[in-house]
Amino acid sequence: MIQIVDSRTIAAGMRAESMHAVAARIIPVELDFPEPGPVVRGRLADLGGLRISSIRSNVTKVERTPILARDDLAPSLMLGLQVSGSSLVVQDGREAVVRPGDLVVYSSTSPYTLVDSEGYRQHQFRMPLERLALPRDVVRQVTATRLSPGHPVADLAAGYFRHLAGRPGAFADAGADAVSQSSMELIRAVISTHLDVTSAATKASLKATLQLRILEYVRAHLGDPSLNAARIAAEHHISRRQLYNVLAAGGISLGDWIRNQRLEGCRDDLGSGLSQHVTIASVAQRWGFRDPSSFGRLFRAEYGLSPRQWRQTATKAQPALASDPTPARL
Length: 330
What we know:
Blueprint: E1 2-6, H1 15-26, E2 30-32, E3 40-47, E4 50-57, E5 61-64, E6 76-82, E7 87-91, E8 94-98, E9 103-107, E10 112-115, E11 121-128, H2 129-132, H3 136-140, H4 152-166, H5 176-194, H6 200-208, H7 210-220, H8 229-235, H9 240-248, H10 254-270, H11 280-286, H12 292-303, H13 307-316, E12 328-329
Parallel strand pairs: 1-12
Antiparallel strand pairs: 1-3, 2-5, 3-4, 4-11, 5-10, 6-9, 6-11, 7-8, 7-10
């Protein structure tokens, strides 16, 4: 869902309160607007676990205060992509001046300040820290820091996130989770590139989250029928034997886990009213099953019903879903 933000549609006397409410949908912060008051235009969008805000505003200061940093928001990481001009980002005892194309991260769990005398001009991407699958001490090393400016990985990421912020509606709901996970993988790559990954402390921290990062990678690529152990191991710079050992330590069998995740994805899609005009074969293919017949046998063995029976049973139990393609206005 995309929500359009335009302060011109709000009565002048209510704009400041309304724009604080909009900001709270991204992350609760204090805002300083110059006279004659707020001027804000942009949009918000959710893609899986990723919340995207693309905002231009005359706000000159955005502050996550110490009190707000202790609120009930799930610990989150914000990635900022500077669009134009320059901004000052302050957090964890560091300051960074970011310019067009620069990437910077800041965390919800400690106070931060963004300052721009010409107004806020960033694309921002918020994601849960737990899904980023990096230890907090690793993240804390890169807050309020320009992330590897000029490095090919950072340049790739800047182009990717610029495109994502510019066209969030181009990604169908069915692909939102995959886009979200791929985005988090890219952020991890940028952070890892920026850090001295040869240091013992960083290597230990990354090793501690290896299993979670592997599973997040696999989850993001479940729709690819060519996904296999060799590819997964190569993506994480380990051998296949190491891959199996890491997963076995958590009681996970790779093949069984992939199959179960794919079946659960198919079951959820087939049980949704939105799937009524999609063939069962298309749903199976979306989740990485090449052969409809073998998919049907696996589904029945797991759930006791054929995919068609499950869809009929599940959709009868819920009301028809209505969709409104018109973006909501705030």
